[in-house]
Amino acid sequence: MTHQLIETAHLDGVPRSDRGHALRVPLWRSGLASGLLWLTAGAYAGLVPDADDFAYTREFAIGLAAIGGFLVLAALAGPVAGLRLKALRHWGPWLLVLPLGLVAWEAVTAKLELLPRPFFVPPQALLEVYLDDWPKLGLSVVASLKLLAWGYAIGAAIGVTLGVSIGWWRIAGYWAHPVLRFIGPLPATAWLPVAFFLFPSSWSASVFLLALATGFPVTILTWSGIASVNKDYYDIARTLGASQRFLVLKVAIPAALPHVFVGLFMGLGTSFAVLVVAEMLGVKAGLGWYLQWAQGWAAYANMYAALLVMALMCSSLVTLLFRLRDRTLAWQKELVRW
Q1: What is the rounded average pLDDT of the residues 185-205?
Q2: Contact 152, 210 (CB under 8 A)
Q3: Is 100 helix (H, G, I), strand (E, B) or coil?
Q4: Which CA distances in Å does 16 have to 8, 10, 13?
Q5: Tell me, what DSSP letter sits at residue 191?
Q6: Any residues with CB less than 8 A from the CB of 227 and at least 6 apart, and which?
Q7: C-alpha to C-alpha distance for 75 and 71, rounded to whole angstroms
């Protein structure tokens, strides 16, 4: 509504006969160019013969052409339908570069075989993995998410609780600080032999390692946040009759939330690395196990497909945490974007 009022005010001095021209959406030239590039990439993949018999080359070419047709249609229909296509325009440069990269990848692998096989695979080989091996890959994703959820949740809960305790009560800091200085800097993966010996199963040992990797940065940043809260907040709350519990739950923790979220982001990043190592060495399920299995059978297409899925999974989880942070800390929403 506000945008419409601004546009109306801007056009007050424009003759009525010229207002349609002033509001006309310009042709998305880069979108049209990127669509033609995607169509060209599809033609190259489908019409130029492969150096070997690769499955799903035809489907790969059709997919590229479909993307190109959609972009051309969006670019041409935008001015007619009055669509500004802001989201697509934002990704315009990427839409220009991606088909060029895919054509180069296709050329040096499937068409010319300039790179040695099986270490380098064409893009349609990844498509084959996603279409034919999706049950095993999907179960691996579910197993990784389950393991990560348990380890991260336990580590974050312990980290926040311990960080608040150290920052608020001196006796807790006296006993916990030396332990943190001794154990915290050690990589969580260094505890692999101890964890697999102490815990009854490799899965529970992996949960412990993930919780350890998550808990240390969350504890340190929560402690830092509690310690840096402005003392005037406590004084004002006390003058209004606030209890000790109120000061902790309603003053200290909300004021420390920006530091807590930094610790949660750091813990999520370290937990990704520990997740893959734990699954490769002990757990018999998950993306780390899938990578190990693919490498053992020299199935490099499966390995690259799993790496791509892992990147999407980790990026999606970070995005979800950013959404939670923006919702909780609305006043800091525009400071850091993901």
Answers
A1: 88
A2: yes
A3: helix
A4: 11, 13, 9
A5: G
A6: 167
A7: 6
